[in-house]
Amino acid sequence: MADLRDLASRTLTGQRTQLAARAAVAAAIAWQLGLLVPGPADSYPYYAPLGAVLACNQTLAGSVRESAQMLFAIVLGAGTALLATMLVEPSGLSIAALVIVCVALGGLPALGSSRSWVPVAGLFVLIIGSGDADSYVMGYTAQMALGVVVGLAVNAVAPSLLVGWSSRTLDDVSRSLAGQLRLVSEALREEGTADEGDEGAEGGRRVELARLALQVREDMEWVRESLVGNFRARAHRSSVLQERSRAGRLNELVLMTQALVSLLQAVGDEEVGGGLDSTGRDLVAQVLDALADAIDDSAGAVPTRAATNRLRAAVKAMEDRARDLRDRGDNDMEAAAVTALLRHTERVVTAPTREAESVPGD
């Protein structure tokens, strides 16, 4: 049931619903305007709402970019097919030849993700418009362009600001990262080293951490793109800055966790660093658990004071261990692991904290 509620919050009441509403309004307006277009285009008003829907994107900048790419692809494909209609009639052979040419033209980097529209537009012209190709191309491209303009206008009037969506995404990443830290901690306690002798577990952990890093970077890019040309950004400036700061800190934590897992694997290698003894493994595991708790406990961008204090205590124990290692002058690899852990927790430990008893909105 919780999963269903989460799904509903993401689809029925979130950014997707706003996008659906904008697309519906744009399609309706484009249809009405398409009926008024004179000349050859008046026979193809149904292409206007199609162009409007395709022009609606989660971000205004994305809408402009993808619409320009789509129109370029349509003109390229339609133009190629128009030349083909002057030479051949629609047939299996001519369709195959046109598709080969259009798919090849779709490889142009400027087309981006709209490259598939080159063969689609070409097939429309060759098959549907072969009886009057000139009029069809004019009507098709004009109505699609009209729809695109309407879609962009609607997006500009009611643009999305992806702060709420970003917050939920970062919550998911935080939970996944905390889970990965606890798995490493558990492996240290049970097996002696992180994924010792289990290449499958190590590989899976690396893949998951790489996925989390990519997700955070994509989230940061989506939020940045949603601000371009968005008049709502100024009114939500504090929320935007908070999400960008949180995403940056979380991205650094993910990257540091990737490096930490690799380092612990090397430290655990008897031939490389002599391995961690039971005391060292337990202290490392305690810090990982405390760090996971602090990440889980975060509200907005910072953990509560209680979570931060628990993490500080675990780090203090590691500092004492590092001092003992330096005084003895042995096990340099373990000392390196301690230093990496301290750096890993620095942004969480030194960040401003919030009181556990604070009420929402304070």
Description:
- The protein has two domains: 156 residues; 187 residues, Methane Monooxygenase Hydroxylase, Chain G, domain 1 (Up-down Bundle), CATH 1.20.58.
- Helix content is 75%, strand content 0%.
- By secondary structure, the chain is mainly α.
Short description:
The protein is mostly helical and 362 residues long. Helices cover 75% and strands 0% of the residues.
Q: What is the topological layout?
A:
Layout: H1 2-11, H2 15-34, H3 47-55, H4 60-85, H5 92-105, H6 117-128, H7 133-157, H8 163-191, H9 199-227, H10 237-267, H11 270-273, H12 278-297, H13 305-328, H14 332-350
Helix pairs in contact: 2-3, 2-7, 3-7, 4-5, 4-6, 4-7, 5-6, 8-9, 8-10, 8-12, 9-10, 10-14, 12-13, 12-14, 13-14
CATH architecture of the largest domain: Up-down Bundle
Shape: elongated
Strand content: under 5%
Overall mean confidence score, pLDDT: 77
What would you call the structural class? mainly alpha
Number of domains: 2
Question: What brief labels describe this structure?
Answer:
mainly alpha; Methane Monooxygenase Hydroxylase, Chain G, domain 1; 362 residues
